[in-house]
């Protein structure tokens, strides 16, 4: 780990490192770091780079101006926090040969500046996994137990039972966002006695994406299972894969988006003149309170509603509609100029040619499954389950929602705004 942040944030990150080091689970370290960085955002994200072992590979997270380079079976993988709204994270498969974590203006590494443990002042760290050698110092053996009778409180082994780290679940593609389960402090969805109870959808080879603790923006409201979503009645059958024209797993915009006039919607200004959803209690930019009874809505240009962050690092800025799929250019909505094409593919062929539409309606972000073969599922924030959405119906999503496209592709709705 390398970081350049406020002292309090550094202390929290070091505590997370000490807590997770015994488990050897780099994914757990990345999750803890993401939660700490989310709480600390009060402007520009702190510069921080974190890496830890994950099933023969490495889990990497970078934010701010930090960067990471991982060399291994996938070649050189470069990650930069400057390319993301908050941070970038990824699971890189092994075997690995070198890991570099750097802060801005870091110089070249020196073979004489060896670090086997502890904390030092520096601007980067380089780990060469091709070189072996004895450690610079050896830890003394633990002192013998002088009072054997004290062992009884932990059982016959003399130590508390250790909960082993779970094996990582790696997506079929070469890259993606690491799975981040929601924090324990996240409010649980309240039961809805008047609504139909749903069975959770079959669990795929994925875990929930990171959940962010609420900042000074719009307060979090518990979000229960959507009442109109159909759930699979049994184990999912084998994926029906349409013909795959391109085995690439990357996401790309098929055309350079031209600037479009912003949609005109009714909203209110905070005292700092940021245009907001009239239903919001706090400004989405600066976090000041919005006294509803004292504000008069007026019609103005709608700002970006945030971004959709895909598992390969691609971001779709929410200022217009999108059509997602293997061949979105042929969609009628794209041909008519109603939406932009975003090409999303997967090796298993579970993404349809015209799979999903992202439709903006006022201040709401809606999903419309376009009758895809393998469907679309959503995971509301704070809910461990995914739910199928009905085809050809607009389904609104809230910030923090994870969306599964087909079987193996995911994206997350981030509400970040800067204007």
What does this structure look like?
This protein has 419 residues and is mainly beta. Among the domains are: 2-128, no CATH class; 251-255 and 306-414, Tumour Suppressor Smad4; 264-301, no CATH class. The chain contains three helices and 23 strands. The longest helix has 15 residues, at 26-40. It is globular and about 60 Å long. It starts with a strand and ends in a 5-residue tail after the last strand. Residues 135-140, 145-187, 191-198 and 203-248 have low confidence and may be disordered.
Task: Write the topology of this structure.
Layout lengths: L1 E3 L2 H14 L5 H15 L6 E8 L2 E7 L3 E6 L2 E6 L6 E6 L3 E7 L21 E5 L122 E3 L10 E6 L5 E2 L21 E4 L5 E4 L4 E3 L4 E4 L6 H4 L4 E5 L11 E6 L2 E6 L6 E4 L7 E2 L6 E3 L4 E4 L3 E6 L5
Helix pairs in contact: 1-2
What distinguishing features does this structure have?
mainly beta, Tumour Suppressor Smad4, 6-stranded mixed beta sheet
């Amino acid at each position: 780990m390398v970081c350049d942040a406020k002292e309090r944030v550094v202390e929290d990150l070091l505590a997370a490192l000490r807590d997770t080091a015994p488990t050897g689970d780099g994914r757990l370290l990345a999750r803890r770091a993401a939660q700490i960085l989310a709480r600390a955002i009060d402007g520009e994200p702190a510069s921080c780079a974190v890496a830890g072992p994950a099933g023969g590979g490495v889990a990497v997270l970078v934010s701010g101006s930090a960067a990471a380079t991982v060399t291994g079976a996938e070649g050189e993988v470069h990650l930069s926090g400057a390319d993301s709204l908050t941070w970038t994270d990824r699971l890189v498969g092994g075997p690995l040969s070198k890991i570099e974590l750097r802060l801005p203006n870091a110089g070249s590494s020196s073979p004489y500046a060896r670090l086997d443990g502890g904390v030092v002042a520096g601007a980067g760290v380089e780990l060469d996994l091709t070189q072996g050698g004895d450690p610079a110092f050896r830890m003394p053996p633990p002192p013998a137990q002088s009072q054997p009778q004290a062992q009884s409180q932990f059982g016959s082994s003399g130590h508390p039972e250790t909960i082993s780290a779970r094996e990582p679940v790696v997506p079929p593609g070469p890259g993606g966002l690491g799975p981040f389960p929601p924090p324990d402090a996240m409010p649980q969805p309240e039961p809805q006695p008047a609504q139909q109870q749903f069975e959770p959808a079959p669990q795929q080879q994925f875990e929930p994406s990171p959940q962010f603790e609420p900042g000074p923006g719009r307060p979090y409201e518990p979000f229960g299972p959507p009442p109109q979503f159909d759930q699979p009645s049994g184990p999912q059958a084998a994926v029906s894969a349409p013909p795959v024209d391109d085995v690439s797993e990357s996401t790309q915009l098929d055309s350079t988006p031209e600037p479009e006039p912003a949609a005109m919607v009714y909203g209110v200004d905070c005292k700092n003149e940021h245009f907001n959803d009239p239903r919001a209690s706090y400004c989405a930019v600066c976090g000041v309170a919005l006294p509803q009874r004292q504000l008069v809505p007026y019609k103005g240009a709608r700002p970006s509603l945030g971004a959709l962050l895909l598992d390969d690092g691609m971001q779709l800025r929410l200022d217009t509609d999108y059509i997602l799929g293997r061949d979105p250019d042929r969609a009628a909505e794209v041909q008519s100029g109603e939406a932009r094409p975003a090409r999303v593919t997967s090796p298993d062929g579970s993404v349809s040619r015209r799979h999903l539409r992202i439709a903006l309606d006022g201040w709401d972000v809606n999903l419309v499954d376009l009758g895809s073969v393998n469907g679309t599922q959503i995971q509301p924030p704070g809910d461990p389950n995914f739910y199928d959405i009905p085809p050809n119906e607009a389904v609104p999503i809230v910030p923090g929602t994870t969306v599964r496209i087909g079987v193996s592709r995911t994206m997350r709705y981030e509400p970040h705004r800067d204007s």
